[in-house]
Amino acid sequence: MTSLPRQRGSKDLWLDAAYDLLISEGIDAVKITTLSKKLNLTRTGFYWFFADIAELHGAMIQRWESRNTGNLIAQCSKESSDICEALFNLMDCWHDPSLFDAGLDLAIRNWARIDPDLQKRLEDADERRINAVVEMFTRHSYSKEQATVRGMTVIYTQIGYFSMQITEEENERLIRAPHYVETFAGVRPEPQDVRRFLQRHTEMDQP
Q: pLDDT band for position 6 (50/70/90)?
């Protein structure tokens, strides 16, 4: 006999399914009936966890803010001995989907085009991200003007990268990462900083 919890699923199960649809098909595809069919659960199960589709939308946006913006800010705040190590900490976001989901970020940006309230939250998120990177540069002795321009360059470069849906082999991206760091910082990263970054993502020593 199927238990009631199994018929309902779980809040995370419904939310994960909604994310999958958002990323693959856009917000217009995120409908209760579609989700229930996808999960092979009843519509009643949905209403056990969410009052309506608007509440689901709110939960999706809240999770995006926590996962992407929250993690990015946390990476910028990590202790670092120099600006290059700090930038590598930030670039962990671009190579670890558990820290930053680029597909989700693009889907949110597309959704915001038709939702003014979400557009405002997106603008606030981008401002918080830029401020976090600016503060990171400032901590490493860059002037306010330098830090601001470099911070905007870092964030706008990454937004453009996934908005253009550029596809590269992961190893190719990793090899380029130290050159991005040098471009953003204006100084060449130390070999040990490069080595630690590559080890985190490939478990291989830099030659």
A: low
Report percent pLDDT > 70 for the chain. 94
**pLDDT at position 171:** 87
Report which DSSP code applies to 50.
-
Q: Which among 194, 159, 203, 162 has a CA at the least distance from the CA of 175? A: 194
Q: Is 204 left (phi over 0), alpha (psi -120 to 50) or beta?
A: beta
Whole-Å CA distances, 103 to 81, 82, 164, 199: 31, 30, 11, 25
In 3D, which of 63, 69, 72 has the Cα closest to residue 20?
A: 63
Reduced to 3 states, what is the DSSP secondary structure of residue 176? helix
Pairwise CA distance, residues 85 & 90, whole Å = 9
Whole-model pTM: value is 0.87
* Secondary structure (3-state) at 11: helix
Contact, 199 vs 205, CB < 8 A?
yes
Cβ contact 181:91 at 8 Å: yes
Instruction: Dump pLDDT digits (tens) for 100-140.
Output: 999 999 999 999 999 999 999 999 999 999 999 999 999 99
